[in-house]
Records
---
Amino acid sequence: MKLTLCRRFALAFAATCVCFASIAPAQPPAPLKIDPILQAAEDARIAAIDRARPSAVSVYVPGGGGGGSGVLISPDGFALTNFHVSSPAGVYMRCSLADGNVYDAVLVGIDPVGDLAMIRLLGRDDFPFARLADSRRAQAGDWCMVIGNPFLLASNLQPTVTWGILSGVGRYQYPSGTLLEYADCLQTDASINPGNSGGPIYNDQGDLLGIVGRASFEKRGRVNVGVGYAISIHQAKNFLGYLRSGRVVDHATLGATVTTEENNGVSVSNILESSDAYRRGLRYGAEILEIDGRSVQTANDVQNVLGTLPSQWRVKMSFRDQGVRTDTLVRLRSVHRKDELLQKMSAALPPPPPREQEKKEEDEKEPGDGKLPNLEDLKKLKDKILQKPKKKKYPKEIEKQLVLREGYGNYHFNLAEQDHFIAALRGQFPGGKADVLPTWHIEGETTEATPRPVSIQIESGNMALKVGDEVFGYKTKADLYEAIDRETIAGILPVLDAWRRMSAQGPKKFGESYYLGTMPLLGERPLRDCMIATDGELEVRWLSHPKTHLVEAVEVFADRDRDPAELLVVRKSDEKGQQPIELKLLFGTQAKLSFTVSSWETKLNQSPNREDAS
Amino acid sequence: MGNQTESIAKQGGRLVICLRPITLGLWIGFVGTLFAGQLAAQGKLSDLSKTAQARVVKIYGAGGLAGLEAYQSGFLVSPEGHVATSWSYVLDVDPIVVLDDGRRFESKIVGFEPALELAVLKIEASELPFFTVNKQSGIQWGDPVLAVSNLFGIAAGNEPASVMQGTVASITDLDARRGTYKTPYRGQVLILDLIANNPGAAGGALVDAQGELVGMLGKELRDAATGVWLNYAIPSDALRGAIGDIIAGRKSSVVDTSKPMLDRGKSHSPKSLGLVLIPDVLEATPAYVDDVLADSAAMRAGIRPDDLVLLVDGRRVENQRSLRELMRRIDRRDEVEITVQRDTEIVPLMLRP
């Protein structure tokens, strides 16, 4: 019976076909044959889109306040978007993926200058995420695609794919003031419209090339005119660690201005004497050749490189002065002063979007009820924007990962990194225990041609360094400060003391501490995790390997405008319990003391509460 | 494509309604793939882009006020530095030409053809890569193309111009005579499925999948009735004659100094032809006609008030002073060929004394 039914359907279907065949030519045409080259190109494109689409994110501001796009970069939900997309949402947004699900997302860190923001989607630890391309190898003419949420079309949760080519690479788009600067960015003719902001641009393999953020809109209205810009993923990679710190992060500047010379070289036209570049010998008139391994020929090139670097990074730099070439390392300064960035940011922020669940306060009259707002209304609006965020109700899962604090997008993520840091520090040689201050005694000999014995004692109120006949003894904090300020070999004492105290006290008791992000060590990648702690006038930095979490360098600054005492820790293996085989003390790029470690004794006998170094 | 339509039709009756959009979708997808396919046979699109970019220049000149961009695009048409570009206000000063490698040159305008909105500049250089302007480009609708231009002046540094891709949507006449589009160009245009004609794109190159020049991007044009912006290029075969004549020196807009300056009584002047120009109060007052004297050569030839004198005997009239200078080299007994712009039309006229 079933069979018969099936047959009848088949017959009916055949009949329909015959009907159509009578419209079409009598002979059924052979199936369309496509040139194999075309077929291969088409298949490759479909495969690339299928690979890319799962990591694309559509971002919505809860309450209907707009939205944009984003892209997942890790299985635990970390995603990138634009600062100008996340800022109207504040710390909480809703995100949809092509899988048809909607997830809560919380703000992590923001980079208002580079127009980047990191958010975290919650609820899974197996999110699909994009593979990062090497955008430095991208060139004009490369096929690419943009996937996102143009005009917030993804109401069915399916993102929009637009295809095109890179129209140019290494483009520079001016900031507004000092924020939203697009340096060394990609230009594409793939359609980019409002709502695509923050979303991914992929190459024809489906690997992430950059973050879409801007387009040239002019007299034709705010729709695509074939010119969109994306922040290169190379720049984003530089900032990933900084953003993960949950901070409001800043970009880098050299502390010098440059001009393009007639013969296409770039020379220093002005330089701050307090800058690290000046300390490394860069002077007025010197020709800059390379920064961070990239050759520069024009002032544009210099800004294109610097604009993609985070503040406080130390990068390689080469310059020529009076015919002499210098290859050195330079610490970059911040574009903004400490509070300047926060002020500019809040001034640039659009007013908070309407929230449906939020009741209007009785005395608050919304400006814009048809009449022009008067001065008082404007003042109120300004106060509303500038005031500290009010305690709002967020979903429980968001609240768990949210700590608001001035200078941070979300302090929760910084605390998490601090916890990782201290656990790793205590878990590696010479170790440490909470609230138990050890005494260190280190022996070794210098790596000079005729080695001298080295002996170091690190004990509260009693620091000593002996190198051959040279003896240094320090008792107070002022002494330690002096040791760095004078750039003597005794600068190793405050460094080791800071390390010792951090291992016992932890970031919360040491002094104001925070996780900075990741940066190169001596200009080299991989990027190292950097923890900063301040202790009175001293600022200490730990640089740890991203994989092994072993401390590779500890720096102590006595003065921001002077070279820090920098201790390089050389280990034989990645073994956590193994003691370093060599220690090197540097000021600037000069090694002042270098010795092999034969023994490193630690005694756990004091409580840090009893410590009184000053 | 016919085959494809039928294969869809065969799948079922209900599809008939949406047949057209589906066909269109396939068609567009097909064309995009075509480019990939054609290129797969030839090498990478980035190589093609690079070759084209090396032949496109950025041009900086007059403008920068009242929404007028002070930049546009051009492309090299000879190894000695002849640059074809769009005739526009940007060329009101001797423009600066920047090559794809960042080299900057001062340039001279060596010729222009108002009816094509074409100008040719010359820089002092040699052994430059250049486009051959072919007699027959063979471009057809549906063909993939690259547009290379200095749109929006994005490539502000010493970097190459921008590349965009798309297809030729159709080849057709521009409906310009009735004022729908404000341009003096009356020939065929390539309509592009590609947002090519942005500020600064005029004078850019349109190349095919083989890297051959097929057209020059035109100035921004907007349909006066619908407000729609047109994306188009002037086909290279339309430009070939004029570019060739200018490069060969057969058609030059530069003042021919070999001709002697005649006495005022023996040479022509605007007045001798019956032209009354608007008052010459600026350093470079354009040669607009204010009035035409009765029973004069100008009247007989049909010159009208508000005509703008562009050429005198094929030589470029930059301003009223240059018009007077040009006329000083023409014998009063000789006839004079004057080309004027009347609204959006280019009108050549012969004035017989």
---
Amino acid sequence: MTDPAALSAVRFRGVSRHFGATRAVDGVDLDIAPGAFFAMLGPSGSGKTTCLRLIAGFEQPDAGSIEIFGAPMTGVPPYRRSVNTVFQDYALFPHMTVGANVAYGPMVRGVPRAEREARARELLALVALSGFEDRRPAQLSGGQRQRVALARALINEPKVLLLDEPLGALDLKLREQMQVELKSLQRRLGITFVFVTHDQSEALSMADRIAVFNEGRIVQVGAPDEVYERPQTRFVADFVGGSNVVEPDAAERLGLPRGLYSLRPEKIRLGEIGFAGTVETTLYQGAQRRVVVAVGSDRLAVVAPAERGPLPVGSAVRLFVPPGAAHRMEG
Amino acid sequence: MAALPIDGRDGALRRLSDRLVARPRLLVALFLAPPLLWLGVVYLGSLVALLAQSFFSIDEFSGLIVREWTLKTYGELFRPANLDIIGRTVTMAALVTLVGAVIAFPIAYYAARYARGRTKALFYLAVMLPLWSSYLVRVYAWKLILAREGILAWATERTGTTPLLDAWLALPVVGGPSLSISYTGTFLVFLYLWLPFMILPIQAALERVPGSLLEASADLGARPGQTLRKVILPLALPGVVAGSIFTFALTLGDYITPQIVGSSTLYIGQAVYTLQGTAGNIPLAAAFSVVPIAIMVGYLAVAKRMGAFDAL
């Protein structure tokens, strides 16, 4: 947890947002440190996007308070917040050129034409789209549109940049490239980035802090390795990286003290010693194989390096759980 | 079950459908042929015939049509009496369109952005319901509403606002002996009649504007008024243009409403009606009907230049 005395870029205290009977956000406390690359991770309907919209001001909380750099945001409309958003569908204005889209922020603030056009050119250069000023959004590829949306959101020099599933619409190669670019952009600008994603690998690789959402609440906040290695709940263990959740009974059978454990598939070793089991399913993933092994009545997912050779269904294997591989969870 | 072959039936219809599936172009041609024939031959044909007629003239003594190419008939349009008719009709159509757009926009905006489920169904019903009853019945109903002894006069009397109504009626041009015998009356009825044709296209255009665009605009610092001017209106413009084409063209061509409610002055529609009927002056009637076409072409050209169709 961050030092409560330090000024948070974004601070939620007991924030709730209900839609009819649905508690989209249910009593959330949240502190995002200035300059952080913060990920809100969770399945769809977990409240992460609503939290983002609460920060942007598109939604107002039904209960609780939100502060941005110490300033209370109650009743402050989106156009008076120093926060900008990169929308999931990019939301580029189809009737304007790329240049006009990027210059929109300064334009509505009354910045003279020459000045805002020069500024738009700077921002387009920043996202490597120099010379695209006169194109229409419809003439751009998905990756280019995303860069335009990024440039447009950055032109007002926001204190916090919000990104709603920013890479969701891009193909894998472009997504990986944009992950690197976003990360380095954030480091260069020093702006607090808050991004929403349902992709745990994206959150792990980009963020320096992750909040895991489930059913309108934050279930765990921490650094990526912390969330990955030491999940606090069954949900986090399962959602972040598909860990084995070992129930108390099964734990005893594996020789662990009775309790609920998270056991990462890559920590289990297939070898000559350990528990005897049978391969139930096997999934080839290039560098590795993901195998489900039945040990008695228990099922464990195991990741084996591909060079270990094929593991046909039904073959007998032995599982070794190194000491300390299992992480005990609260519940 | 297993004994049934996959192609159990082998009728002529089946063979036809197989052939059509294999040749999508033929299918499209079959679908398009009737409307294209209708548009190309019947509609465009009559339009050309009409245009041709307008370049003939009438012999003023015999009343017979002289089939020689001349611009004489178009010259007649510029007589003061005829210019008067054109000016009156165009002004009326423009006012109905303008005021119609101003009234329709908030209604369409509400329907597109806020109405959901049952409210939306109610909206459609409310907009379309008047179209279910006869046009003539509605116009006559308005005559009764607006008449000297009508419900409106009664209401002003009961609310003590009769002086207001009288003051309006005492105004030059828009006034008259009663609302049902004034330009104001004609205007109100036109406005009522064509409003659905303005609301629906605007609503359809607004419906296509993603909510995220409005949020993006606010996010970037635009106040609601700026979002309206810079994002909503430009994107709704094709709808407004479509709606204004409807209302403008419908008002330009109407010859019944001004006959029932109004100050018994002529509009283009009535002029065409009289000229081709009792007067037997087909060339002038044709020339008159070219006026709305010319105006619409000019209007569309201006709208296109203003970028009304860029977002299509």
